[in-house]
């Protein structure tokens, strides 16, 4: 009777001897499923399934592998994207004054290319898909160091209702044409517009100038 050798590879995370590997790539070893989960943020970048030829070879040797006590650990699901929360300004038709709200931004698929996160503002617009305008100038047409990203409802503007009372308030009713519908304003973190920073009351003068010029 022959003794069955035991395969003991060091766990990728703690170096403890183990006979379990990642079921997806079959090349990284872990002593517990928890260690695979803990290391997944790093390991997922190199976790490449075997090629067809490798898979065939693995299948042909699966019986011998099992004889050596090799077990598999299921690969964790992809990590959920980490949302970025920033302060924005809400101009609501039903409210007399603008107020600060929090907007979550979904990271772009290619942040290394400088693509700006996507603000999730749709829940503030019940009458259709919102559209965005980028304001690059403030009072007296001076360039804004941090451009403003204004989201509004084209449908509300076309209908001419409801009149935005918060915008009416900050313009003292002097705008030649009333702005209608909800408006949400975010603030870019620089002129390259690769991300957002917190908007606040300091941005109201530039917004007031824009609304006063709207016609």
Structural class: alpha+beta
Helix content percent band:
10-25%
Distance separating the two termini: 93 Å
Task: Give me the strand/helix succession.
Answer: EEEHHHEEEEEEHHEEH
Oligomer: single chain
Q: Low-confidence parts lasting 5 or more residues at pLDDT below 50? A: 1-5, 59-65
Instruction: Give me the number of helical elements.
Output: 6
Rg from C-alpha positions?
Answer: 28 Å
Keywords: Metal-binding, Zinc, Zinc-finger
InterPro entries: Znf_MYND
GO molecular function: zinc ion binding
Protein name: MYND-type domain-containing protein
Verbal overview:
This protein is α+β, with helices and mostly antiparallel strands and 215 residues long. The chain has 2 domains: 9-73, no CATH class; 84-213, no CATH class. It has 6 helices and 11 strands. Strands 5, 6, 7, 8, 9, 10 and 11 form a 7-stranded antiparallel sheet that branches. The chain is elongated, with a radius of gyration of 28 Å.
Detail the topology: elements first, then pairings.
Blueprint: E1 9-10, E2 17-18, E3 20-22, H1 33-43, H2 52-60, H3 62-67, E4 71-73, E5 84-91, E6 99-106, E7 118-119, E8 131-137, E9 143-152, H4 154-159, H5 165-170, E10 183-188, E11 196-197, H6 204-213
Parallel strand pairs: 3-4
Antiparallel strand pairs: 1-2, 5-6, 5-10, 6-7, 8-9, 9-10, 10-11
Quick take:
Pfam families: zf-MYND. By secondary structure, this protein is of the alpha+beta class.
Essential attributes:
alpha+beta; Znf_MYND; 2 domains; metal-binding; 6 helices; 215 residues; MYND-type domain-containing protein
């Amino acid at each position: 009777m022959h003794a069955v050798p035991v395969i003991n590879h060091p766990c990728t995370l703690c170096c403890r001897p183990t006979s379990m590997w990642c079921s997806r790539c079959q090349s990284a070893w872990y002593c517990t499923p928890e260690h695979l989960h803990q290391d997944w943020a790093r390991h997922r970048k190199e976790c490449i399934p075997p090629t067809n030829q490798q898979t065939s070879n693995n299948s042909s040797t699966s019986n011998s592998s099992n004889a050596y006590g090799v077990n598999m650990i299921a690969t964790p699901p992809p990590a959920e994207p980490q949302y970025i929360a920033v302060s924005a300004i809400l101009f609501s038709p039903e409210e007399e004054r603008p107020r600060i709200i929090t907007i979550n931004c979904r990271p772009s698929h290619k942040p290394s290319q400088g693509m700006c996160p996507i603000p999730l503002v749709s829940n503030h617009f019940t009458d259709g898909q919102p559209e965005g305008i980028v304001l690059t100038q403030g009072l007296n047409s001076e360039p804004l160091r941090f451009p403003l990203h204004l989201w509004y409802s084209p449908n509300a503007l076309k209908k001419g209702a409801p009149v935005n009372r918060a915008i009416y308030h900050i313009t003292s009713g002097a705008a030649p044409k009333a702005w209608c519908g909800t408006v949400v304003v975010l603030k870019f973190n620089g002129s390259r517009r690769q991300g957002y920073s917190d908007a606040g009351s300091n941005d109201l003068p530039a917004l007031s100038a824009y609304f006063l010029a709207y016609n």
